[in-house]
Structure formats: structure tokens, C-alpha cells
């Protein structure tokens, strides 16, 4: 069965600053999108084995309102949270356990003003 959400656009004001931030916290390079007619960076997984399901794009309005995008922490929510401030972002809410179905979540603000969720399953994977 396919996923209900197939793609997420994260609006940014400055692609270089946002790419540096996400590369630092995820631990993987943000890749320029081939053939894009605007500034777009693809979020990849640290092992480069995960599929790409989100991008950063110059346009729109970064916001802490509206839908929340949750990033996979690849089993390292503590490490990712530790890198947020160092990379220029803000931890809005430290990790909290939401039960076995959800696992651990936390909320950050990226360098562009977006509220982003971090999620790690209860089994840590």
C-alpha cells in the first residue's frame, strides 16, 4: 500500500542557509534538484538508501502555523536535537514520548522560520 503523503515542500527564504541547516541536522547533503527552474534542494537520508520525499524551495512563506512536517531522525533524535542550535535553529520542544504507536517527537524552528517536527519510533529505528 502506498503512503498517503507523497511529497512535502518546505518553503525557505535562502536556499544556501536552509540547505546548510538541514544538511547539518540530518547528516546528509541537500541535493540540488536537477532541471528545477527555481532554487530547490532535495532532502536525502543519511545512508542515501531512503527515498526523497521532501524538498526545500525558495518561495511560499515559512511559518510555524499550519501543517507540521515530521523528519525521520534515523534512530538519533537526541543527536539531531543537539545539532539544531549549532546549525542556527531553535529547539521549540524537547523530545517527549507519545506512546508505542508514535514513539518520540520533538519540535524545532529551522533557520527560515518553519516549525518542523522530529520523530523516532518507540523501538528506536
Features:
four-stranded mixed β-sheet, 125 residues, single chain
Mean pLDDT: 90
Looking at the overall shape, the CATH architecture is Roll
Q: How far is the N terminus from the C terminus?
A: 21 Å
- What is the H-and-E element order? EHEEEEHEEE
What count of helical segments does DSSP give? 2
Spatial order of the strands forming the largest sheet = 1-4-3-2
Structural class: alpha/beta
Number of domains: 1
The global form is globular
Under CATH, the homologous superfamily reads 2,3-Dihydroxybiphenyl 1,2-Dioxygenase, domain 1
Notes on the protein architecture:
With 125 residues, the protein is of the alpha/beta class. It has a single domain, classed as Roll (2,3-Dihydroxybiphenyl 1,2-Dioxygenase, domain 1), CATH 3.10.180. The chain has helices spanning 15-26, 77-86, and strands at 8-12, 31-32, 40-42, 54-58, 69-72, 90-97, 104-109, 115-120. It has a 4-stranded mixed β-sheet, with helices on one face. It has a 4-stranded mixed β-sheet with strand order 5-8-7-6, covered by helices on one side. β7 (104-109) and β8 form a beta hairpin. α1 (15-26) runs antiparallel to α2.
Task: Produce a short descriptive summary.
By secondary structure, the protein is α/β, with parallel strands linked by helices.
Secondary structure blueprint with pairings:
Blueprint: E1 8-12, H1 15-26, E2 31-32, E3 40-42, E4 54-58, E5 69-72, H2 77-86, E6 90-97, E7 104-109, E8 115-120
Helix pairs in contact: 1-2
